[in-house]
Every structure is written in structure tokens, then in C-alpha cells.
Amino acid sequence: MPKSKRDRPVTLSKTKKKGREHKESIVNGIRDAVEKYNSVYVFSFENMRNIKFKEFRQQFRHNGRFFLGSNKVMQVALGRSASDEIRSGIYKASKLLHGDAGLLVTDMPKEEVESLFNAYEDSDFSRTGKTAVETVELKEGPLEQFPHEMEPLLRKQGMPVRLNRGTVELLSDFVVCEEGKPLSPESARILRLLGIKMATFKLNLVCRWSPNDFELYREGLDLSDVETS
């Protein structure tokens, strides 16, 4: 049997080199984009969904670039302070890169960017560990939304069910999830089977930098929060 490529040893120095090259590539990509386009936006995201984000990103494919990844690497690319920033005042945007955040560098008019971000919102199924936004409880009795073939699967999720004349029947009231508590793997699966979407993928603008001005979008932020270098 041929030896799997997965089993081939990789030296630590080689791994570190690849990691460094990847970071340098991101830094150079951001700096090239800042030179090419005239506005930089910091945005935050909730419940990221890669496929949906890819679809959203297509709207900027001709006049902008998105960057996601290590906030520290993106901060280095822009400059962390007034002394090492790559463009005048852009370090203010760098300071707001924390948590689940990304960069958009674009030439699109600001009104269009704001409109696209503000209008975008997409519901999806919550994943394991996410907080339930509502309590879902199923009452004792027939579960006619499920075909009889699903009875074993529902039982594996901890639901007290049986087949009664070909119909899935819940033997007692069953709480799928409770508001404010994290979802277990079983709860997340049952919600998906029920078609209940509790996650909302959203993109929120945090700030905008251009050579002529700097604008904050997020409530509660003040210019004094970012002007100290």
C-alpha cells in the first residue's frame, strides 16, 4: 500500500516559513489595494456563512477587495499608529479591527456601500454552541411534519418518540432548546429538522477611511477612542 502523503513529516521551520509567507502575502495584498482604491471600510460580522459571504462579495468584484483573517496582520498592513501608518489617518481604521472583523477596500461610492451593507441580512440554521434566541417546545402527540422513516433519527436526538400506526408520536412534551442557553448538537439538529432558523448572518459597517475624511458608523464609538496613537 502506498504511504499516505498525510504521514509525511513536515519540519517546523518549513511550517513557520509558509506561515510567514502567507502573512506577508496578506499584508502586501492589503497595501496594494489601498494604493489602488480610495476608501477603506472596517466591518464586523455575525454568524458568518462562507457561501453567503461569497455571494455578497460578488457585488464588489469589479471595484473592490475584501480581506478576512488575523486582525493583527491586517493592523500591521495598515499601520498600528500614526508613526507607521501607510496613509495619513488610516491607523484609526486599524485600531477598530478587533473581534469578528474584516476590511473592504473599494472605489464604490459610499452611498452604495452603505446601502448594500445596511440591506443585507440572511437567516440560517444555528450551529452547536450558539445561544438560542427563543425557547422551542414540542407538545405531546403526533408529529405529522416528520415521515415515519425519521423516527429512529429523532430518537437518537433524545426525543421520546414512537411509531403509532405509521405516524411519529411524541410521548411527552419535549423542550428542544431554551432561550439564552447554548445549543447542544442534538438541539441544533432538531431545529434544522424542524426548519427553524435562529441565526442571522449580518455585516455591519464600523468605519470608513478615505484620504479626505474618517467616519464612524457604530453607535457608542467616538473619535477620541481611535485618535490616540
From TrEMBL:
<feature type="domain" description="Large ribosomal subunit protein uL10-like insertion">
    <location>
        <begin position="127"/>
        <end position="196"/>
    </location>
</feature>
<dbReference type="Pfam" id="PF00466">
    <property type="entry name" value="Ribosomal_L10"/>
</dbReference>
<protein>
    <recommendedName>
        <fullName>Ribosome assembly factor mrt4</fullName>
    </recommendedName>
</protein>
<keyword id="KW-0963">Cytoplasm</keyword>
<comment type="similarity">
    <text>Belongs to the universal ribosomal protein uL10 family.</text>
</comment>
<dbReference type="InterPro" id="IPR001790">
    <property type="entry name" value="Ribosomal_uL10"/>
</dbReference>
<feature type="region of interest" description="Disordered">
    <location>
        <begin position="1"/>
        <end position="24"/>
    </location>
</feature>
<dbReference type="InterPro" id="IPR051742">
    <property type="entry name" value="Ribosome_Assembly_uL10"/>
</dbReference>
<keyword id="KW-0539">Nucleus</keyword>
<dbReference type="InterPro" id="IPR033867">
    <property type="entry name" value="Mrt4"/>
</dbReference>
<dbReference type="InterPro" id="IPR043141">
    <property type="entry name" value="Ribosomal_uL10-like_sf"/>
</dbReference>
<dbReference type="GO" id="GO:0005730">
    <property type="term" value="C:nucleolus"/>
</dbReference>
<comment type="function">
    <text>Component of the ribosome assembly machinery. Nuclear paralog of the ribosomal protein P0, it binds pre-60S subunits at an early stage of assembly in the nucleolus, and is replaced by P0 in cytoplasmic pre-60S subunits and mature 80S ribosomes.</text>
</comment>
<comment type="function">
    <text>Ribosomal protein P0 is the functional equivalent of E.coli protein L10.</text>
</comment>
<dbReference type="GO" id="GO:0005737">
    <property type="term" value="C:cytoplasm"/>
</dbReference>
<dbReference type="GO" id="GO:0042254">
    <property type="term" value="P:ribosome biogenesis"/>
</dbReference>
<dbReference type="InterPro" id="IPR043164">
    <property type="entry name" value="Ribosomal_uL10-like_insert_sf"/>
</dbReference>
<comment type="subunit">
    <text>Associates with the pre-60S ribosomal particle.</text>
</comment>
<keyword id="KW-0690">Ribosome biogenesis</keyword>
<dbReference type="Pfam" id="PF17777">
    <property type="entry name" value="RL10P_insert"/>
</dbReference>
<dbReference type="InterPro" id="IPR040637">
    <property type="entry name" value="Ribosomal_uL10-like_insert"/>
</dbReference>
